[in-house]
Amino acid sequence: MFPMCSRRLRLVQVGAKGWGLLVVLMGLVASTYASGAALESVPDRTVVLTFDDSVASHHRVVRPLLKELGFGATFFITEGFSFRTNKQDYLTWEQIAELHRDGFEIGNHTRDHLGVTADTLGLLREQVEAINRRCAEHGIPRTTSFSWPGNSIHPGAFPILRELGIRFARRGGQPEHPYEGGRGFAFEPGVDHPLFIPSAGDARPSWVLSDFRRAVDQARGGRVAVLQFHGVPDRDHPWVNFPEERFREAMSYLKSGGFRVLALRDLSQYVDASVWPPDPMAVVNRRRAAMAAAESPAPTVEESVGAR
């Protein structure tokens, strides 16, 4: 997906039978980037809530609960799908403006929920600006956060988004994890590219509290658990539907656990979004290598002796 920097993650097989993986991270470039990009230290239990696709339940269900709990969040707006005609399942712009007045962040998900590929790069600017114009019509500031529609990402979009004033962009849990399970990694300020921020979890209909906890409990050691939701519930996209009762249970876990719950724009406290790593895929490769190493069986005594 991205061109690799020469000082990047390397995987080296060790042993005559190739039984293990030695992960060597060439740290000069990475450490230089991290020292320039990281700002304040991140408190443990810091979580970001994000909601995609302009679903009506964001106003009806999510809004009052987050206000009651005092949580921040980012709502990524698109006029795609049947937004213009189906007001049973999608927000109105008046409701979107009310979310803004309540203090929530309004982010950009492109006008038509456009997947960003080499073929669509030329359309991206107008797609983003169309949402910005609609925001201006309703007294909403220009967007500075972006969510990649359909998790379709092209590196040629990075400079375009930067020119448009986008500081942070959230993806899903891929490519480290497959899409179907909704699993992911926490964001590492000063390591992850600010326009390639992973979701620690992307809620699914089958999720129970333990799935949610697996995502948010990564929020420690300087990492931020960025969570992705769609509708609560989501009738138009049942594969990412998250039932209201489970959402309430998840939010209660955050509240009782003393989590700090923010919008995506609030990451500016912890990372300088103007500083980009030389290789956005380096940290992805490191994570994938670590997972592969963890899944590799340990050598038997016979294999260890035989390798000498």
What would your notes on this structure say?
The chain is an alpha/beta fold and about 300 residues long. It has two domains: about 1-40 and about 275-308, no CATH class; about 40-270, Glycoside hydrolase/deacetylase (TIM Barrel, Alpha-Beta Barrel). It has helices spanning about 25-35, 55-70, 95-100, 120-135, 155-165, 210-215, 245-255, 280-295, 300-305; strands spanning about 10-15, 20-25, 45-50, 75, 105-110, 145, 170, 200, 225-230, 260. The strands form three sheets. Strands 3, 4, 5, 8, 9 and 10 form a six-stranded parallel beta sheet that branches. Strands 1-2 form a two-stranded antiparallel sheet. Helix 2 (about 55-70) links the parallel strand 3 (about 45-50) and strand 4 (about 75). The longest helix is centred in the middle third of the chain and has 17 residues, at about 120-135. The two termini are about 40 Å apart. Mean pLDDT is about 90; it is low at about 1-35.
Short synopsis of the structure:
The protein is of the alpha/beta class and 308 residues long. Helices cover 32% and strands 14% of the residues.
